[in-house]
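Need tokens for this chain, all 280 residues.
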Amino acid sequence: MTFIVTLIALLIERFFDWGHLRQWRWYAAYQHAMTRRFAGKSPYLALVLTIIPLLILVLLISFFIKGLLYGFVTLLFELLVLIYCLGPQNLWADAFSCVNALVQGDKQLAADKLKSSFGITNGSYSQSLHKHLLNDIFIEANRRVFAVIFWYAILGPVGAVLYRTIVLSANDTMQETTAETSQSARLIETVLDWLPVRLFTFLFALGGHFVQVLSCWRKKVLLGLSSNEILLTECGTAALGQDEQGDILEDGSVEKSAVSLLDRVFVIVLVIVAIGMLLG
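Here are the structure tokens for all 280 residues:
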């Protein structure tokens, strides 16, 4: 079932932009209410007390629908949860819209797209801007897609909900999130990312330039929590055959190559999940 759910979710996410259907404003309001209720307590405790009820609810629903219609209801429920926990914005739609805006040369359109899609606020057309976008594509591929799938494969729908709520809580752009809560959630997010990032970047080697990625991966794989984003960006760049310190083409071709790399990697992910289900 895990393979079927992952396959359908990835196909939908890759070829359809359903980001507008994933509304998490309710969680922001819910978290704000819970934070006020537990004011004065440890931000970690407040965060746990906020998320635990949601995880229990998912567990209860999974328990009560188990076996209904020969497991079809469970499959549908897990599929809806996984799709809802991806994103929230669609990675592929955002990447292509940003690349197209940059290539068209409309500075205002490009600035708006980059800010709304990846939070990039540098409005100047420079090598660093293209590099920033490339790096964010790799970072967001993990945050929006791979890590969600990883924790879903490990813990089921509870894992997907856990990861997404932690990431949302770590988002300091949400006005309802206090600085203490955001900082605590960000630390938990880095802990949850440590293993998925290392697996994800290893898969870059299988989908791209194997020797270059493996050389980079071996140097940084055992580094601490703060190395997650560095590992993603450097291994991603290496997988494309690019020099980390070198310039990249400004015609959008490198960013499109990054998206193609991610497509290959997610196909490999599906193969791994399928093999895991067969062996399990």
